[in-house]
Amino acid sequence: MDFLPTSLPLLPGFCASRYNYSPLLFSSASSYFSFLPLSSVSMPASPSLCNFQSAPPRLLACCLSPDSANGRTQAATKLPFVLAADECSRSSPSYRWQRVLLKVSGEALAGDQTENIDPKITMAIAKEVASVIRHGIEVAIVVGGGNIFRGASWAGCSGLDRSSADYIGMLATVMNAIFLQATMESIGIPTRVQTAFRMSEVAEPYIRRRAIRHLEKGRVVIFAAGTGNPFFTTDTAAALRGAEINAEVLLKATNVDGVYDEDPKTHPNARLLHTLSYQDVTSKDLSVMDMTAITLCQENDIPVVVFNLNKPGNITKAIFGEKVGTFIGRASERAAAL
After folding, report:
1. Which of 25, 111, 319, 322 is a Cys-bridge partner for 62, taking CB atoms 3.0 to 4.6 Å apart?
2. pLDDT digit string (tens) for 56-72?
3. Torsion sign across C-alpha atoms 210, 212, 215, 216
4. pTM of the model
């Protein structure tokens, strides 16, 4: 009897609709079957394709990150994600958004500390992002740098002008991005850092088409160095990158539950606002994000969700489009968010 090895090359674009992870390592889930009889396989016209008449051995798709394209080792330091190949034939779940941009402030990365980075926070972010990218949702991240250096606060001190202070702040965001990238790669998430100005030894330069291609391949892209220009906040950078990559929503992770009618730190009875319009934010001068950022979101019809990063599960809920925090957008979108 003739036998056909089960290690036939998989079809181009295998699992492309849901699991675009790269690189992929395919192995048989059962060592019992090494070969299949040719009688169980019907060969179509194309010699590279085959249709199994009986169920083939279950295959596992293991995502190992980072890959050699970034000049690093092939295997992650932790266990990779393992996805059953036969799950690719199932219909993709319908979530509210398929491409999201997550904005994480520097203060949020610091956690309860006044400065620096809390590794528990970055690991919590990585684990929640991991739980959603396995469903085919594309995630880009913009990080702030306020936990290390805030240009607007230092401008004028010791003769430091605003432009120089802002450039130092941009470098601080790169430090946060590299730390977050390392955390994500340690649990097997393919991640790329792109900076607004060239730092080729540590990150890729920001190229819009390359960033979109990374997302399509299932990689998380972290945008650092803000817009690359002084006088613009990382909130504005998040709105700008979100518009450029055609993100469907901007998720702003903060240290509070959302937007309040008053400052909850000084007013214990402050009321959480579950939905707002863009005009509400601008006319009432609510401290959600700067006017440039919210206007950019409004002009490009990008809704904004403000939520508390410190509550476990909130990132997952926000990315899946579940009710969490404060939703800012058009009237029809706000009605759907209620």
Report:
1. 25
2. 444 334 444 444 444 44
3. negative
4. 0.73
